[in-house]
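FW: tagging you since you asked about this chain on Friday. Here's the raw sequence from the shared folder, copied in full. Didn't touch anything.
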Amino acid sequence: MKRLALISILISVFAFLLLPVSLAQNQEKVAGLPHFAIPPSEGHRILGQAKAKHIKGLRKAVPSELLIGHYDYDVSYYRLDLLINDTTEIIYGEVEMRARSTISGLDSVTINLYQDMTVDSIRSQNTQLLYTRDTHSLHIRLDTAYASGEEFSVRIYYCGHPTESGLMGFNFGTQGGVPVISTLSEPYSAHTWWPCKDTPSDKADSADIIVTVRPDFVVASNGLLRELVTNPNGTKTYKWHESYPITTYLISLAITNYLTFSQYYYPESDSVDSMQIIYYCYPDWLARAQDVYPVTVDAIEFFARTFGEYPFLKEKYGMAHFPWGGAMEHQTCTSMLYSWYAVYVIVHELAHQWWGDLITCRDWHNIWLNEGFASYCEALFFEDLYGEDYYHTYMSYMDYVEGGTIYIYDTTDVGNIFSLIVYDKGAWVLHMLRHVVGDSTFFDILKAYYQDPRFAYKDAVTEDFQEVCETVSGMDLDYFFRQWIYGEYRPGYRYSWLSEPVLNTTGSQKPLFRSRPDIGPRIDGYNLYLHVRQIQPAHLTFFTMPIDVKITTTAGDTTFVVFNDSNTSDFRFSLSNQPAEVAIDPDNWILKTSGLESYGLNIVTTSLPAGSTYYPYQETLEAKGGTPPYRWRITGGEMPGGLLLDSVSGVFNRAPLDSGDFVFTVLVQDTEAVPDTQVLTLSVVYDTTAPCDLVYDGGLSVADIVYLINYIFKSGPEPPLVKCGDPNCDDEINVADVVYLINYILKGGPPPCYVE
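HL: got it, structure written out here
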């Protein structure tokens, strides 16, 4: 409780710090660019805490049906008809739900309604239905059994004062002595004030929100206001209709003595000429809103051309003041803390109309698909205003260093759902993805995701978004999503480098004067060796990422891209000019730490070409740094039989006799006994047509004759294959075979019988 009180105080303090009267005053200007008094990351923390703090005492107590969705029906329509008495703080409601059965023989349903609400009756058509209830739900016996796909309806009559502890989605408050009635139902609180299937995974196709209030009140809600009725008793009834699919937590009310002003958005659309943008403001805060809120039009235009048209074009976009901390992206009518005018908050909540309202996270495990996307949209909007450099500056405001996973495993703790990681690290996932797939492909991905009928006006999980990314890019991105969504922390890179001239030994540089000696071998460029190691805790293994490497030479800068997929990696670059400086990921496309260190002894051979059985295999391992000469040896694993590693030269020689994939560890030491190791894999293919080259020198020669003589007469090593010692193919290895080889090699006699 003390922590919640402190958060409330902090929010109030931040609110008074953010009382600008114009966009220019909303943020300080540093070199012509915005610098926020409350950094975006701190703003996101406030937004998340504001959503979580009204779920007091709920931890570990969320009912399973809200978490898992144990329902056997699909909602098609809600009709909320509410009478709200602001004096007694009682709501009187009649809620109709229409739905389709998803099983055969559905004869009962569960509808969520918190226990503080009193149920008068439940009916279907003219039939009164029996029900039982528990803390969070009504369990209703239907009037008959319904077949799969068959429609049914339930009408619930209820009343009560919505809860003010535990789940709290409905608030009776005041502003300047005037009552304010407002809702914030995310994630589990819609059912605290109206009966519904309270899960984000089932959107109603449409909804009517009908609210009767006292005559001086204005009701802001979802969709379009179809009718405003003045009743005989002086009350007013607002009839809002949401014609687009909507999930329960996005249905909202904001009610007080609002003053309004409007703008219009003019889309590039054949279906709609203009769309109203309407702002519902506390009278004392109207002027401030009029000065800052118009940025909304520019933001809608930017998002429409970047992702696709505003998703609820035939209705409106609105913003309504409310007293809750932070803001909430209610569909077509965002609720905003009346004293908060940070542009990034306005942009963040607007972006949710695409990412959160059009496409909604299917469950709260995947809330980053809402919040991470909206946070990233802030950076995109400011990039459009101020350019690419400021885009990177803005991303640095959301630098995330803490642990935890973006995928929220424990959704019973609402503080987890709205933790900063989903806002800021979620935004960094999209930032990194943009660079991994390329700029144009990234925006093609977002447009494809927006347009995909499987998700638009429906819901999605991370794997759905990953599928779109892989389909559009043609890339396997499993490594990317696995480590950044389901893994913890971030990579810590340490890198080092050295360079060597490439000498042309076939000729010397000519002296300027004949009397002087040759200058020596000509330099034909430079090889640069880069060593990258990851230093994050061992239990995190390593991060796999493409990394930009910027090399500054005497002729300018060149950027290469390397793929780092191990704890330590070595890369070689061929340069025309002498390198002077190296930087990895200089533009901060990776959420990381990095640092330059001295180059040590490193094996720079990172892979081996495949070989074939019985063919000579001659590859040279290479190391750089340290103090040569080097000594080589195998310290683990298994090499194929027959293959040898020379300890001085690092050269593999002879021929492998075994086929398969062989993994072994190579160790090198310099004169100071400084070691380095490298795990290598050698693939050897079995080749039945391999030549019978007994000494592995590349062909049949006198050396093979000597080898056979040693075997027959001096107990030397036997031939690797029987056929190789039997060139006359009489199934015996004896002096006749030596004679046969002598005739073939030295006298042009017939070839061995195994030569095809």
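FW: Residues 368-386 form the longest helix (19 residues).
HL: agreed, and The longest strand covers residues 492-509.
FW: great, closing this out.
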